[in-house]
Amino acid sequence: MLIATNSEKIDISLEDKTSELAKSFSRTLHKGDVVYFNGEIGVGKTTFIRHLINNLQQLNKINLTEVTSPTFNLVNEYDVGNFIIQHYDLYRLTNYKEIKNIGLFENKEEIVTLVEWPEKIKETIDNKIDLFFEYNDDLNKRYLTIKGVKNKK
């Protein structure tokens, strides 16, 4: 069964609100889910991902790990108990051939895949969720909009 996961713009200017949303969102994830994180540098993508991963680790009584942006490594992997999360950051990749070489989506049915800078991917992925992070006009506030459809597990 497919479920819609669309939202209005949600104000995430305060980190407490980002943490609360990430915790709620983390409870909806299952093996095979793909989540795209769209938005400018510094808008809160990695902060959201850190709260998401640490919440799942806490729920499953696993030691919390430091969650950083994998800009230089390209991918970081986290055990959250029920599954493995692969967190990709495609920011510094310059062409699609580089993306193919890192094995993105190779084992996607066995893991949860989180991708920052997904606009660099050419192939279309069905059954994904897009999170759009943005600033307001004067950069004082940040917002999150969730769009997508995923199979209910």
From TrEMBL:
GO biological process, one term: tRNA threonylcarbamoyladenosine modification
Keywords tagged on the record: ATP-binding, Cytoplasm, Magnesium, Metal-binding, Nucleotide-binding, Transferase, tRNA processing
Gene field: tsaE
Gene Ontology cellular-component annotations: cytoplasm
Principal location class: cytoplasm
NCBIfam families, sorted: T6A_YjeE
Keyword tRNA processing attached: yes
Protein name (Swiss-Prot/TrEMBL): tRNA threonylcarbamoyladenosine biosynthesis protein TsaE
Source organism phylogeny: Bacteria, Pseudomonadati, Pseudomonadota, Alphaproteobacteria, Candidatus Pelagibacterales
